[in-house]
Amino acid sequence: MRAVRLVQIGKPLEEADIPIPETGSSDVLIRVAAAGICHSDAHYRAGISNIDCLSLTLGHEVAGRVEKTGKHVMQVSAGDRVCVHYLVHCGSCEFCVRGLEQFCRSGQMIGKHRDGGYAEFIKVPGANAFLLPDEIPFEAGAIMMCSSATALHALNKARFKAGESIAIFGFGGLGFSALQLARAFDCGDVYVVDINPVKLASAAGMGAIALDARAADPVEQIKEATVGRGVDVALELIGSAKTIRQAVLCLGPLGRAALVGLTAESMSIHPYTELINKEVEIIGVSDHLAAELRALIEFARSGKLRFPPETLRVVDLNAAQINAALDALQDSIDHVRTVIVPSSDK
């Protein structure tokens, strides 16, 4: 089968012809219909996030149709439309039994620790395949499994509830989903902070209060808009010390800042005036949970979470096109996600 693989850190991905994976009794073989290109994939290629074993097929945002199932797989059948939960876990360690598989003792991430979806086929455990309703396009089903799922997990971790206000720092794939999901939670005012004018216009078109961080300090803009109170919840989706600090400082009393963006930078905080005095919380957010995916899929099936065609860019299963898409992630792209849709004529 055709695949596009990371062969050497710091070098472009390469096309390869590799065997179709053999499936075990608890596995499913999926014909890939769509695979999202994520910022994490660019980090793997660049060596920012460590990859232990090469060569490797990247791609952790995957949707497709079941080609074959092992004899012990009961929840899906050949021909089913599915999307893939990218955290492969043991199911029996102390974290898995609590439903916290992102901390599994022997956990693996698809597209990082084992071959992912930049290929014509992918093998995953049957437990990682979730039925994808006909109402959801494969392209949306793929990218939901990372950006949307993590956005939902962040809202859950922040204990976000109806009527609360929220500030979203960064309007990429995560922010685009977070805004829609906050609406699905029947939120109050939504403030979106970004520097890309196209994304700010998109956020405003979706009913958010768009704040240009280049025009003025976003914390001051939020405080002015809320008459000095601040917001109930802030999601930091960028990953910089500056925006993390802004997410904390824009909170009102009892506010919660959920930190999703990855950075190696440190952040300074004044414990009394900026945390203790307002009883605000800083919450780390890591990946998402399988238990959250059925609710997420229902949000998409019902139209509360959508990815219109103009928000996506489609490329073929072609190394040059995929490398170009990864290169573009170094800048602030105007669209939400690039999705690989393997052509059927090769």
Structure in words:
By secondary structure, the chain is an alpha/beta fold. The protein has helices spanning 39-46, 138-157, 173-184, 197-205, 218-225, 241-249, 271-275, 293-301, 319-328, and strands spanning 2-6, 14-17, 27-37, 56-57, 61-69, 81-84, 87-88, 108-109, 121-125, 129-131, 166-169, 190-194, 209-212, 231-236, 251-259, 281-284, 312-315, 337-340. α2 (138-157) crosses α3.
N-C termini distance: 10 Å
Name of the CATH architecture of the largest domain: Alpha-Beta Complex
Query: How many domains, in number, for the residues?
Result: 2
- Average the pLDDT over all residues and give the rounded result: 94
Helix content: 25-40%
Oligomer: single chain
The CATH topology of the largest domain is: Quinone Oxidoreductase, Chain A, domain 1
The Cα radius of gyration reads 20 Å
What is the string of helix and strand elements? Answer: EEEHEEEEEEEHEHEHEHEHEHEHEHE
Show unreliable segments: none
The computed structural class is alpha/beta
Which percent range describes the beta-strand content? 25-35%
User: What would the principal axes of the Cα set say about the shape?
Assistant: globular
CATH class of the largest domain: Alpha Beta
Could you give a short account of the major beta sheet? 7 strands, mixed
According to CATH, the homologous superfamily of the largest domain is: Medium-chain alcohol dehydrogenases, catalytic domain
Find the count of extended strands (DSSP E, 2+ residues): 18
